[in-house]
Amino acid sequence: MAHHRASETKREQFRRYLEKAGVLDSLTTVLVALYEETDKPNNALDFLKQHLGVGSQESTDTEALQQELNEMRQRCELLLEENKGLKNKLQRYEAGQDDGAAP
């Protein structure tokens, strides 16, 4: 019997924690919105993520990372071209040194 009371106390503490953090209100709001949808979405979990704000944060992060990736690719291309040009200059310089050193 004491074990049963301890688990009830833990559950009650956890419920109060969720309530205080606003989790219960948020979940209730989103679940009510899903319930009231006339055309139920194919993926209820995606609906929950989107309405809890998780999906939008991920897409914002993904867009920012995609843009950064594109910028880094462009920069890499520019650096590769610059490197190629410098190698060509170095080869011409070294070839000129060889020609000038010959008796």
Mean pLDDT over all positions: 87
Structural class call reads: mainly alpha
Q: What's the Cα radius of gyration?
A: 32 Å
- The end-to-end distance, rounded to whole angstroms, is 106 Å
Number of helices: 4
Helix content: over 70%
Count of discrete structural domains: 2
**Helix-strand sequence:** HHHH
The major sheet is characterized as: none
Describe the overall structure:
The structure is a single chain. This protein has 4 helices and no strands. It is an all-alpha fold. The protein has 2 domains: 1-52, no CATH class; 54-103. The radius of gyration is 32 Å and the shape is elongated. The model has no long low-confidence stretch (mean pLDDT 87).
Write the layout of secondary structure elements.
Blueprint: H1 2-21, H2 23-36, H3 44-52, H4 54-101
